[in-house]
Amino acid sequence: MAELKTKKTKMSVEDFINTIEDEQKRKDSFTILKMMEQVTKEKAKMWGPSIIGFCDVHLKYESGRELDWFKIGFSPRKANLTLYISGAVNSQTELIKKLGKYKTSKGCLYINKLSDIDQDILKQLIEEGFKEKPFHK
Fold first, then answer.
1. Confidence of residue 2 (pLDDT cuts 50, 70, 90)
2. How far is CA 44 from CA 64, 90, 101, in A?
3. Spatial contact of 30 and 52, defined as CB atoms under 8 Å apart
């Protein structure tokens, strides 16, 4: 079985965010960081060179595959801000309709900038994503 390439690192989350050239994306990243810290009550950790994750979990799938990952997280990609909020993207359909301008795929929420969305709704989605099984503590 192939080994997961994205692993937790000791890189500083704040240092990473401060390297983001786009000023708005940098500000938005610090805002999302704060939101996720408030919801999880934990400090973020870097996963690979560009993913910020919260709450380490060990996952074991029915297939027998096991891996270490995070409950929720985000990545300030060049094209957009990618939020990893697991099943909330699929299970919170009524809530997500109120969000604003976004795209989704397989547990990920893509937004261009925070001004495109309702940040209170985003925080609710983050809260729901954090509660989603199998990631709930």
1. low
2. 28, 24, 26
3. no
Q: Which amino acid is at 96?
A: I
- Helix and strand totals (H; E) in the chain: 5, 6
pTM attached to this predicted model: 0.88
Is domain 13-131 annotated with CATH 3.90.1150.200? yes
Mean pLDDT, residues 116-127 = 95
**Of the candidates 112, 71, 69, 105, the residue with the CA atom closest to the CA atom of residue 90:** 105
* DSSP bridge partners of 117: 100
Residues in the chain: 137
pLDDT digits (tens, 9 = 90+) for 43-66: 999 999 999 999 888 777 777 777
Any idea which residue has 């939101």 for tokens? 35
Cα angle vertex 67, ends 64, 68, to 5°? 150
Domain boundaries, the chain: 13-131
pLDDT of residue 136: 36
